[in-house]
Structure formats: C-alpha cells, structure tokens
Amino acid sequence: MQSFELNKTDTLRIKQALEDEDENALKVLLEEYHASEIAILFESLSEESREHIINILPADVASEVISEMDAEMHPEKLLEKLHPEKRSEIVEELDYDDATDIISQLPQERQDEILQDLDAEDASHIRNLLTYEEDTAGGRMNTQVIKVNSSLTKKEALDEIIRQSEEMEEFYTINVVDNSNRLKGIVSLKDIIKSRNTVHIRELVNDDFVYVKANTDQEEVAKLLSQYNLSSIPVVDDDMHLLGRITFDDVIDVLEEENTEDILKISGVSEDEELSGNWKEAVRSRLPWLIINLGTAFLASSVIRYFEPTISRLVILSGYMTMIAGMGGNAATQALAVTVRRISLNDLTDNQAYRTVLKEITVGLINGAANGLIVFAFALIYDSNLMLGLVIFFAMTGNLVIAGITGASIPLLLKRVGIDPAIASSIIITTFTDVFGFLILLGLASRLLL
Amino acid sequence: MQSFELNKTDTLRIKQALEDEDENALKVLLEEYHASEIAILFESLSEESREHIINILPADVASEVISEMDAEMHPEKLLEKLHPEKRSEIVEELDYDDATDIISQLPQERQDEILQDLDAEDASHIRNLLTYEEDTAGGRMNTQVIKVNSSLTKKEALDEIIRQSEEMEEFYTINVVDNSNRLKGIVSLKDIIKSRNTVHIRELVNDDFVYVKANTDQEEVAKLLSQYNLSSIPVVDDDMHLLGRITFDDVIDVLEEENTEDILKISGVSEDEELSGNWKEAVRSRLPWLIINLGTAFLASSVIRYFEPTISRLVILSGYMTMIAGMGGNAATQALAVTVRRISLNDLTDNQAYRTVLKEITVGLINGAANGLIVFAFALIYDSNLMLGLVIFFAMTGNLVIAGITGASIPLLLKRVGIDPAIASSIIITTFTDVFGFLILLGLASRLLL
C-alpha cells in the first residue's frame, strides 16, 4: 500500500536492539524509517528507550520525530531530559511553530533555560510566538514564510524564492510585500516561472486573496482553508504586516482536535481529557459530570417518590418506567448528535433553526407513536390491560416529542448565547426526558388507572 | 478578518435583485464574490433562484460554485435541470473528480445523457472514475495530474510542467513516470528550478515516497496524508501505473465526513442520515435503532418484572432504580466516547487495549464508589435505612464497573473482528448497564432487605 511501513518484525528487532544495547544494529534499523514512523513506534516504547533513540538519531531526523510525536506522548518531557547541547541542535531544526507548541507545555523557568541555549534569532522567533494564544491563528502559524518585494523582477524573485526556500520543505504560494513588510497580495510560483524575465512581480500579483489576523480563532482558520481550498493562508497584524502562514497540515490537526472535543463533550466527558491519559485524569475529568448527573437523577427520582402510592398499587408500572425513560434518553441523544454536528459544520439562520426544531418534533411524534404502539400491544396482550396500554402509548409519544424538542433546541439556544453547543451533553438532555417521562407516565396512571 | 465576505446586506441585495428580476444588478453583485461564497449563499435560496444564478454566471465560476456546494444541497439536481448546452460547459470546467462525485448521485440513464453531451476525452475520464467505489482512493482521486518522463532534461521538464499546469489551479509535487506510465518517484518543482539546465530528471527523482492503490480506503488515505504532511498523494494500479492523485482538500472533506459518521453512530443514528435532511429521512434513519433499543428495554424491564414482589414490598426501591440505571448509562457513554475516539485516531496494540479496559475498570470503581457514597448518605439520612444504603452503594459501584468494562471492551472487540467500533452505540452499551444495574440492585435488595 505504500513503499515503507513499520511492521511487527521491525518493531521487535528495534526493541531487541534496545535491550541488547546494540547501538550499531539500532542505527542501521532506524535508518530505514520515516520520522513519523519512528514517532508511532515511540508509542510502544518506554521513556528511556525514546530518549535513547533520539540521542542516536541525527538532529534533523530527531527533530522531525519530536514534531510528529502526539501531544499525548508529551514530547516536551522528552526534550527536557536531553543534554542541553543535543536539545538546542534539535530545537533549532524544528519549525518555529512546532518548537513553540512543544516548549509552551513546559513551566516558565524551563522555557527560559531552553531558549537561552538557542541562537539569538531562533530564540527571538520562538519567544515572539509564545506570546500568542494557543488556539488562535498566531498560536498556530509558522513565521518562516516565503515573501518577495513587489518591486523585484522575475529573475530576482526566482533567485530570492530559491534562497528562502532552502530551509523549507514545501512552498506553494509566494507572499508579496512592500518595503515595510505589508502584505500586498500573493503570486503563484507557476505565474512567475511562466512570465518573461523582465516582468516585475507587481504586474503578476493577485490582490484578491484570503488572509487572517493573528487573533483569529483556529476553527475559523480551518473553515476558511477548507472553504477556499487553500494549501496555506497568510497571517497578518492589524496593520497588514505579514507575520507568518498557516498550512493545511496544521489545519488537519485542528479538525481532529475539535472533533475529539465535540464527541467527548456530547458524551459528558470534559474536553481536555487526554484519550490515552491514566485513570486519575479520567476520574478528574468525568466525576464532576457524573455528580451533576446524580443531582439530576435525584430530581427524576423525586418525581417517582411523589407517585410512590401509585406505584405501590400498580407495581407493574415500574417495568414500563424504565422503558419510557430509556427510550426518551436515546431519542434525545439522536436529536442532539444530529443538531450539534450540523451546527458545528455550518451556522444556521433563524429560519433554519426554527425548522430544525419543528423537524425534531415531527420525528419525535412519529417515532414515539411507532414505539408506543408496540408497547401498547404488549400491555394489551401480556398484561391484558387496555387502559394501561393507552397510558403507556401516550407517555412514550409525549416523551419522544420532548426528546426532540430538547435535543434540538438546547444546543441551538446555547449557540445563540455564544456557548459551545456540544456542552449540551447527553447528561443534561436526559434529565428532561427522565423527569417528563416519569411525570407523564405516572401522572396519567394515577388519574386513569387507579 | 479576510478581504471579502458575504454579509447580510449583500445577501439581501442579491435576494432583492432576484425578486425584481434585475439581471444587470444581479450580475454586478455576483461579480464581487468568490464561488465558495455564492455556494454558501445558495443555502438560503430556493432551487429556482439557484438555477437562475447558475445560468447568469460564466461557466468557469458556475462550475466552481457547483463543486463547492455541500452534497446536502444536491448539486446533481441543479445540474440535471440546466439546459444541456450550459450543463456541458459547466461539467467540462469541473475537475474530473468533482464531476464524478456529482454525476454519480444521479440514476444511470441521466448519467449517460450528461456524458453523451460532453467531449469524448472528458466523458471517458469521468466514465473511468465512475467505476471506482465512492469511498476509496480511486473514487476520491483526480486524474488530472502533472507528470514528466524521467528521461527529460530540466529545460524540457519545466516546459512540460508549465504546459500541463495550464488547466490546473495548483500543483506541488511532480510525478515521474517511465515510458509505460509507471510511477518511478516524485520530484519537487523547487529541485527542478534549482538544478542545472542539462540535468536529467532521473538524477533528481526521489524514489522513497508514499503512494496508494486505487482501492485503498479513503480513511487510510487521510491518515497517510496527515501522518506524512503531504499536500497530495499519487494513486496507482496494481502494476504501479499512475492513475491520478488525491489532494489535501479532498482529505479535509473525508475527515469531516468520517467524524460526522462517528458522532452519529455513537449516538444511535444511522451514518447516512443527512444532517439537514427532512423528517422522513430522520425517521427512516433512527426508528430502526429505537426499535432495537425497545427490544433491549424489554430485556431490562423483564428483570424488573422478575423482582416485582421485592419492589411491591419495598416501593422505595423504584426511585433508586432510575438512579442506578441512569448513572450506569452515562458512565458507559463516557468510557465509550473516549475509547471509540481513541481507536479512530490510532490503532491500539494488544497491550494498550488491555490497559485501556483495566483503566476503565479502575475509573468505574472510583467514580462508582464516590457516587455510591453520596447516595448511601442520602438513604441513611432521608430513608433512615443503613442496609438500604449499603445495597445501593454496592449496586452503584458494581454498575459503574460494568459501565467501564462494556464501554471500553465492546468497541475494542468490534475493532478486532473488523467492525466499525462506533457502531457500539450508547443504545447497545446501556442495555448492559440497565440489565446488570437492576440485577445487582434488586438481587441484593431481595436477599438483604426483605
């Protein structure tokens, strides 16, 4: 499927070489792999082995491995442990934005220590990047960016581009700036190559282009890149001075991050729980939500307590209670997932929001009646009780309508007031279906069945 | 934030011009906007207005608008309605992969009609692409790809690249092929520009590169692109013949799609429900899951029926039942979300899978005991019943351990046998916590409290 991939045998051989402390075998084995494959291999190695391998690798490969390591493997801790000289070599090879991301995870005094050892220019670039919020365009951008002055000729520009590109892996669009580094537009390398030698860049520049300010939210940047099919987007300050660029690979990371947050929040897990974190972290992240849920469960059970006399005269109800509550909860989760995902991909107009709620009410009515009919038939045949069947039919239908209303309208309302709609987790939503489900079932039962 | 964006006033003006049938005003207004902005505007327009605008726009802009339209707006229906001549013009402007995606949504005879009107070369490209499965590399790739023969000199290659790039918006890496179109490697444009005029491409080619077969799953392609930070990836057949390439913007779409599928499946919604679909579609997608859930609810309620004598002697239990079941369901959903998301980002080794289950058991034990203690205190104070409190404490703890075991191990097992782990929706998982929760609570209660 691809020309190289780390297979099980290789992994075992590398582990064996580590165990035998056979440096030569290790070096030969590692040379075969791409840095991102070594980063994947790291997942199954101890911290000591990771450090060992980083020390063996040439600085440029080591830095690539470190930049490819998942944030959850804590590359900053690995960096911290290295010999200062090796560490500086590696950090200087890193792209500034990657170096900043990793270093920003360390405490202030450790950051300063690492920056002191770097050459002055690199240190100042990184220090500058450390001042931006992590989740903004400034925090995501790379300050290494190819730019040419609009007054250059084609020949001069090409030479300049090739000089600047020495340190960069890839470049696609060239930014055009004036004498005070203000962004005037972009030009494609293709257009430069195609033009006559005497042409000036200002004749080729495209001034109808997309850019972002440094404080733009990263999710917004991802949307723009994907909307306009750009491979990179320039970042400017308030006076249009060119600060850096964000490339599509940063955006892929942003999308994965935002999607993880959505799926966790909707399931009542705090968004910053690390997926591979240990049990302590998981308890810290989830226990608060469960305690909130316990509070809402007390609310639901107080409805049941209120109707205890009804239940004690008709114990059969308790079996149906769990059905009504369970079905309501699941139908609400369905409506919630569809609505949250829809909002997170597109903003809805008032009219679209209104029609979404209306649609969910219709869906609740139909799904409720369909399931209500099944339970009605069961009550009629198994419990031989027509009235009980009717009560359950209405409770099921009513609760699935409530599920539709809450599942759609709560995330929409949250979005309207500027709160992340995914926080309307299943925990919040099921409170409504539990409480109302029991109220309808037991309320009707105490009126009609006793 | 960016140099142009459709604001509310513009939208209103365009709508006004549509209403007044003022073609000139409409043309002037539309000229101001990027195709992707017009595609967004389309969301709030009727089908007639969309058709009207497409007919006014020049074919190249119209085709870009159509390729930017969300699949949920059904661009294929818009295309179907256009005058055949206009339609052919637009389809010929589309990238082959976009044209194929859109046309593939139509019934066979409509597809043939559209293809007949196209020029022979375009039609054969699209016919060829239509043979690949939608979710594979072949279904996603674009057959317009820049390639040079490895025997060309630098000068010849540059001319060739510029000639081939006339029809393409962007290109980053050049594919190198032999005389029978077999992919030999890649070369960056940068390396070509930097080299001497007499150098042959074969001296510059990088043969350590990533490629995919046409039948590779699109999710796998997305992983490779993001893992190796590539802006595009070549697609080959079994004999290494170059078929096309997949670019990062296709991959961003894939990621959004896969993430929507995950979040829907985990919430018990069928993965192909369109987020903005109507109620009929929503009922079709969700009712089957709710009926499955009803079946499992019958299972849970049969446990309750079995213990009816216990409940009728101790009605107070029914309030606690809903707490135990509700908390178990939510804790299971938490464990499920974290595990599913983790598996979808990375494959786990056996050892990691084992430790994941172990971690979730620990988390269940701690969160269960913490919540159990609260409910124990409540039962002691409010119901003055020590033994009842103990029973509830053990039921809560036990059920949250079961929540952890099922929430983590069911998706892991599904992954092991090759089924999408996200199918282990909250509906399946909560069955276990309902049934076991009631069994523990009512079983203990009938032994210890009566």
UniProtKB/TrEMBL annotation, chains A, B:
Any GO MF annotation of the entry: magnesium ion transmembrane transporter activity
Keyword Cell membrane on entry: yes
Domain CBS: 141-204, 205-261
GO cellular component: plasma membrane
Main location: membrane
Localization per record: Cell membrane; Membrane
Residues that span the membrane, as ranges: 287-307, 319-340, 361-382, 388-414, 426-445
SMART domains documented for this protein: CBS, MgtE_N
InterPro entries: CBS_dom, CBS_dom_sf, Mg_transptr_MgtE_intracell_dom, MgtE_N_sf, MgtE_transporter, SLC41_membr_dom, SLC41_membr_dom_sf
Keywords in alphabetical order: CBS domain, Cell membrane, Magnesium, Membrane, Metal-binding, Transmembrane, Transmembrane helix, Transport
Subunit structure: Homodimer.
Role of this protein: Acts as a magnesium transporter.
Name under which the protein is recorded: Magnesium transporter MgtE
Species assigned in the record: Arcticibacter tournemirensis
